[in-house]
């Protein structure tokens, strides 16, 4: 058998035995022989913070037939060293359950709509690993995270997000016991994660960096004063947790939980996107539709769309797809478009979280972010340098000139 690693650092466990198990699971037959494995990296350094992504082309024979070829994406999540805290969050088990149980159920509530790539194999030995269909084969690819999404790509993403949200609502209505599921109880952002030794420290460091820049902007003086009080009293943490907490009048679904540009793959017809799928369901939870929408808006839109295109995106993309999917599933009390807009406004603090913690990384130039990973960020000098760079990019600053005005209008900083 031929193994081509092509000068990539591929883990030893991704060998013939491993892929024979994968193919046995995928084909349902144990009579599989591997002919060759051809590896490449599935993402560049700095693009995936928690995991390592590999792409492999497998040539195999089955029952002595002619050789066949299949392509996989392998997601490997080491749970030791710098990633030990990730293990405590249970992200691997969450994603495992989402792909093996909940996503198939959500898709079954929709009408031949694909939400995510197929997951063929999951194991925790020797390392937490998931094997997916390679969506590059049918023509899907990620967009440019640094630029952000234009109107057409934003529409494609929101249409699919709307369908996913509708599928989650239909499933929760069909299976009421899932409303109390432990696996959907919380996402990535919890009170423990906002501890001063964890994301809480970065949240307030980035807020301090933003205040430093915003202090130089005309027309933002009063907002800056409010932000300084928020920073001093560490007010945002409780307000973010309040936004995440489900209220009795929330429009509740199974949220993606980490809906930003690199977790969306687009297929194109010519230059225009005609479909999208989501990846990375490590932060999924039961929660308001407004959480995902605000998180997506703050992290993933180009500045001009962020400035004047959000209502258009809800009215022309999200809501029509949302309502149509709920109608096809005979949902009992379909929210109105005004209900959806009110929900987005009510959960805007989750957008502020995204703008402070996610947007800096998203908008950072690829050259500057090349060394950004969980290991290097443990070094304080490196983390400070990357933090300063990430909070000074043009898109980060221009986006916040818009977002701070909007959020202040909602009273988020009062």
UniProtKB/TrEMBL annotation:
SUPFAM superfamilies: Protein kinase-like (PK-like) (SSF56112). Residues 130-328 form the CHK kinase-like domain. It comes from the Eukaryota. This is CHK kinase-like domain-containing protein. It comes from Hermetia illucens. The lineage of its organism: Eukaryota, Metazoa, Ecdysozoa, Arthropoda, Hexapoda.
